[in-house]
Fold:
Amino acid sequence: MTIYDVLIVGAGPCGLACGIEAKKNDLHYAVLDKGSLTESVRRYPAGMTFFSSADMISIGDVPFTSLNLRPSRIEALNYYRKVTQHFGLNVHIYTDVQNIEQQEDLFVLHTNKGEYRTRKVILAIGYYDIPREMGIRGEHLPHVSHYYDEPYRYTMTNTVVVGGANSAVETALDLYRNGAHVTVVHQFEWFDKAAKYWIVPDMENRVKKEEVQAYFNAVVTEITEKEVIIKDLKTDEIKHIPADFVFLMIGYHPDDKFLRRVGIKLNGKMLIPEIDAETYESNIPGIYMAGSVIGGEETAKVFIENGKLHAQPIVQDIIKQQLSVKEEPVLVNKEA
Structure:
């Protein structure tokens, strides 16, 4: 059976950056992902543009040119595909790593396509595929979604968007501009000021002009087939809002169940993985973490532009450990 020097779990931009570093340093590697290439980017809204400029989210020293200062989702998908082809990266898509076990000096990755064996592992699994849940009745009805794709299905319908950060604001604006009747429900006083600075004023104007209905200091208590029931946190008043479609844009989190199953230690309420600050090696020797997954629930701290920088120190530490093993002296039994 093939034994790899390193297996990288996650084929997002940061996982691909790790694959590039591994290939540049002649390591026997593979990149595994349970979805498509850059699955998290693929699942972004169709018309989304990045907060960062193209050069900031480029990888492998391959220039990323965009028609505008901030690239679109389509431009990013094409760019990462071409980078993967440029380097000839060994990527295994639709390969779901379900567990990782240690057997002597190797790690065994159990996947839906069989076992993989490797000396080192890099977890670059991100957080976008695990939505935060509200734990309310009706959350899993067919017309309720934690993701937003494109607006045209929802023209002339009553839509309710829950949340007040980037995803919620962008979703509400896109729906409004394409003919949907939009209501926003947010548990705080106003929209998140840390959201993309060019969309918050736009959203504020839509609310002030009553083009978008908004309820602040309010929480959703139940979703039915025809309406959303909300509670005012200041007055306890209950309101019923007509809803053909509901978007729960309240954020995402890393797959903590998988990480715990693997044995990664998660610290505090924010579930911050325990790692070495310089090498990004976890509490399990030989398992490294790269990209946004190292931020735990603090998903606004690590992005593509700084997560991609984890690749080089990780791969250099793997090489350093390989060399130290080769240089260990051989003990000779003098009595033999």
Observations:
- The chain has a mean pLDDT of 93.
- Residues 311-326 form the longest helix (16 residues).
- Helices lie at 13-24, 39-42, 73-87, 166-177, 200-208, 256-262, 304-307, 311-326.
